[in-house]
Amino acid sequence: MATVFQKCKSDEDNKNYPCDKARCGHPWTVRYRENGGRSGRQREKTFPKKTGPDGADAFATKVENDKLEGIVSVQRPKYTLKAWGDKWLGGRMLSDRIRRDYEWFFENRLYAQLGQDTDMAAIPPSDLQAFVVYLQECGYEPRTIADWIAKIRGMFNAAVAEEVRGTNPAADPKAPLALPRVSGRAVDDDEIPSAEHVWLIADAIEPTLKLAVLAQSGAGMRLSESLALGPTTVRGGDFRIRWQTSYETEPRLRALKHRAEGEYRDSPAAPSLLEELDAHTRKYGCVRRTAQAGKTTFHEEVAIHRAGGKLLNKSHFQYYFFKAQKKTGLVTPDGKPLYHPHHLRHFYASTALANKVPILNVSRWLGHRSIQVTGDIYGHLVPAMDLAAKLALEAALWAE
After folding, report:
1. Domain boundary at 294, 312, 329, which?
2. 157-179 burial string, b = 16+ CB within 10 Å, else e?
3. 318-348 burial by CB neighbour count: b if 16+ within 10 A, else e?
4. For the chain, which residues score pLDDT lower than 70?
5. Which listed site, 47, 154, 155, 261, has its alpha carbon 20 to 30 Å from 317?
């Protein structure tokens, strides 16, 4: 609690000590701690009078109210939200691709919602809670929201460490953020389209996008990876997946998820899928793009493009993907599409595992950061091998 007192009555070093007058006219002092409890710095501020809107009592009340809101009212370095966000990002070791992801999210989500000119020291927990709701309304998955809030929490931690503000509004024990519940990762069987449904969508979608549907379901590519597919992706009958398209309105080629620039993964290509790629390129042609990975320049041919040679991003594809499902009747009772593009990868993984392809291979072809991720999502789809294990152990230990 902030304490209001006169040093002339209590401080022996004060030139007016001791003072026994009730209304002496000497200054009043407010002693308080910054946010952080006993670990917060102790501060003092002096006022010519005790009462009134510009007096010591009013300031003490303001200090306590600001503490409840997580706002710092002491002398600190002044930063707007954008200025601090730029400073924080500038000090982090990030690949160009990851940095662009941060910059896009901060510019189009964080700054747009909280205000880029908002004082960093004046952002309360309630504003971040509203930001969580905003991300939900934007369609972000619970796990993605949790990931971004963790990054924002780190940004505010750095602000506290450099005394830009007193507390972290994203980690306030008195007002913890309510995040959407993150469900288990295991894929639901209802999220795995049948081969019949895959073909219904492929035949109903815009003809120029059919190849992307087949690349996701037949080669396990991510949506943005399938949009970067072309003849230069093929290596000896397999796909060498090195690029994906970016999120911008004018997409470009960028490095893969979970990989540094220039890294790639190989994925087996079904002969018929290679024929689909060949037929597509003969009919629609390719556009040429260059992509940089370190000092190496890659010259790529991209088969999926719009009129005028522009590449597509995820939003472009999703619009036509959902439209194709409504056209074919693949909708829920309330009229929503049954499948998300990511469900095409579920078809790929489940088909491979059902045919006893080792999960380690499937994990590598999908481009997961570790086999644990693959196991969490698809482990329950691996065919039961109980009998095989029993027979093997019986033969090894008890065979006569």
Report:
1. 329
2. ebbbeeebbbbbbbbbeebebeb
3. eebbbebbeebebeeeeeebbbebebbbbbb
4. 1, 35-40, 67-76, 182-186, 258-262, 382-386, 400
5. 261
| Residues 162, 204 share a domain | no
Separation between Cα atoms, residue 280 and residue 271, nearest integer Å: 14
Q: Are 60 and 2 in contact (CB under 8 A)?
A: yes
Maximum CA extent, the chain:
107
CATH of the domain at 253: 1.10.443.10
Distance CA 7, CA 19 (A): 9
**What integer pLDDT is reported at residue 76 of this predicted model?**
62
CB distance 332 to 190 below 8 Å: no
Q: Which residues pair with 293 in a beta bridge?
A: 296
Domain count for the chain: 3
**Is 186 a domain residue?**
no
Distance from C-alpha of 211 to C-alpha of 312, rounded to nearest angstrom: 13
The answer to the question of residue 399 being in a domain is: no
Question: What are the tens digits of pLDDT across the range 313-325?
Answer: 888 999 999 999 9
Instruction: Indicate whether this model's pTM tops 0.85.
Output: no
For 116, the domain range is 81-171
